[in-house]
Automatic annotation (TrEMBL):
The organism's taxonomic lineage, starting at the top: Bacteria, Pseudomonadati, Pseudomonadota, Alphaproteobacteria, Hyphomicrobiales
EC numbers, comma separated: 4.2.1.17
InterPro entries named in the record: Enoyl-CoA_hyd/isom_CS, Enoyl-CoA_hydra/iso
PANTHER family: ENOYL-COA HYDRATASE, MITOCHONDRIAL, ENOYL-COA HYDRATASE-RELATED
Protein's name according to its UniProt entry: Enoyl-CoA hydratase
A Pfam cross-reference name: ECH_1
Broad EC category: lyase
GO molecular function annotations of the record: enoyl-CoA hydratase activity
Keyword Transport: no
Amino acid sequence: MAPKSLRIEIRGRVALLTLNRPEALNALNSEMMDEVCDTVAKYGTDDKIGAFVLTGSEKAFAAGADIKEMQPQGYMDMYMSDFFNRWNELAALRKPVIAAVSGYALGGGCELAMMCDFIIAADTAKFGQPEITLGVIPGMGGSQRLTRAVGKAKAMDLCLTGRMMDAEEAERAGLVSRIVPAGELLETALAAAEKIAGFSLPATMMAKEAVNRSFEVTLEEGLRFERRLFHSLFATEDQKEGMSAFVEKRKAAFKHR
Ligand code: CO8
């Protein structure tokens, strides 16, 4: 069945996923979560796909979790359904994912962008964790991933005041990797994703795994982990191809893409 809240387009080796609930500024509901997670599960194991771009509309990447879905729920509903737990499948995806953010990325929307590997922001982007204004707190990683990305001072400021920060502040703080004019957002994100998807897939997957590992372990353990992965890549044909191509002054043609 075709997804209702998501558009899926395959552009070369990139899967472009566009959140599509314009009537609710792409508020994240359970249906959208299932559609996104089913889609990343499908293309996550598809050899023809090397990277993903997750985006929204010009006005909103996503204005948060769907408040209307959550409003009638009680503690037992949330706890027993482990509400919104499935989004972790996106965070656990092994292939690279770029968030292309235009307009609002608030609450769960900001948290969803932070589950991706990096964020490219339009100059119109606005990030925030306004849950406090609803009598709750971030629940999809805002207190954890945002703090790791921007540090305690700004994370506390955003989570406690509920204010929004614009793209420039987000870039200064380290939340986004680059800012582009709104009209160039998608082509920039797709070009970056296509570039990534042209490299050796085991190498891009290991690069992602190694960077993510740095959030979990000591420096010593992280360095050891990185070195093990580095050594292991010498078992791949793509290492032979990549280094031979450099020596022979030609473009590498990676096999495992
Ligand atoms: N949920 C449901 N509907 C929404 C949401 C949302 N988060 N955001 C916007 N909408 C709807 C509005 O209700 C409105 O619908 P309608 O026309 O039927 O009334 C439509 O989208 C357009 O919105 P506005 O008219 O409000 O548009 P404005 O341009 O005036 O304002 C804002 C844009 C500032 C973005 C405003 O819509 C807003 O403040 N939205 C809510 C932002 C927010 O508080 N987000 C956090 C939600 S809580 C959350 O994300 C928790 C995540 C953790 C879950 C973890 C579970 C374990």
